[in-house]
Amino acid sequence: MNGKELVAHLRESILDDIYAPQLWTDTELLRMLNYAEVQACRRAHLIIDATTQNDLGTAATASTNGTAGTNGIRSLCWVPIVADQATYNLSPKILQIKRCQLASMEYPLTGPVTYAELDDLAAGWFGTNGTVGTAGSGGYPTFFMNEPNNTLTFVKAPSVSDIARLVISRIPLWPFTLSTSPEIDEQYHVDLCDWAAHLAYLKPDSETLNPNLAKYYEDAFTAKFGSLPDAYIQKTRKVISQKQRMRPREFGR
Questions:
Q1: In the chain, which ranges are continuous DSSP H helix?
Q2: Which of 68, 25, 30 is nearest to 192 (CA)?
Q3: pLDDT tens-digit series, residues 195-220
């Protein structure tokens, strides 16, 4: 379904707002539907991506590390690696890194891991100068961390330039319009109307404000996509290890 079809369904089947004067504009409803898509992704991780190199500046962020990226562009699934640099800034569009593999390596790295796991698995991982991932001589990394501020850190820092290829879950890169469709799978499109209706019934106007209906549609949306994780849960999700089995790795191939 495209945005026009979703707005029409929202008006006809939920809000009963077909005839003029309409209580909500198309612009309002489309904005609410886009909010709903982001909510669905944050709750259920509906967009899994392994191919999009960067966010094309859609996150309105500063350039990556001051070198690799301009005009607010940050890395998504393709991270240029600089020799002996352990930490890289990623796009805030990323919700979780599910897999990380260097182009020169045969197997993926283990992670994301926590500080406590590294203390058990990689003694001395924390550099004597307080720099994460740079302890000891250079070489090839075995682990990676994904911190809540969306940085990717290798332990150890790669000793040569490379490319890190990620599999991630993320939120949409662009808002959809009346003529385009949500990025999530079509089977979930109509369910976005529940969150949009929740927001619509919170509009502070005597003819639109209806807390009971707002709560009803919020609950309907939650039943389909789950609860919105709080800040602690979102932080925990980023550092949950994928529990990959350790395997020998060959560097430089």
A1: 3-9, 26-44, 115-121, 192-200, 211-225, 231-239
A2: 30
A3: 999 999 999 999 999 999 999 999 99
Count of C-beta atoms within a 10 Å radius of residue 99: 16
Take residue 190 and report the two structure tokens written for it.
């109509």
Sign of the dihedral defined by the CA atoms of residues 78, 81, 86, 91, in that order: negative
SS3 call for 37:
helix
Check: pTM over 0.90? Answer yes or no. no
Alpha carbons 167 and 64: distance in angstroms, whole number = 19
| Cβ atoms of residues 209 and 199 within 8 Å | no
Check: CB of residue 163 under 8 Å from CB of residue 105: no
Instruction: Give me the amino acid identity at 112.
Output: P
d(CA 4, CA 60): 27
Q: What are phi and psi of 176, to 5 degrees?
A: -85, 160
Asked if residue 241 lies in contact with residue 111, where contact means CB atoms within 8 angstroms, the answer is yes
Among 45, 38, 44, smallest CA distance to 169 is for 45
Estimate the share of the chain in helix, then strand, then coil, as percent rounded to the nearest 5: 30, 20, 50
Q: Which residues of the chain have pLDDT under 70?
A: 60-71, 127-138, 231-253
From 166, 163, 143, select the one nearest 83 (Cα to Cα).
163
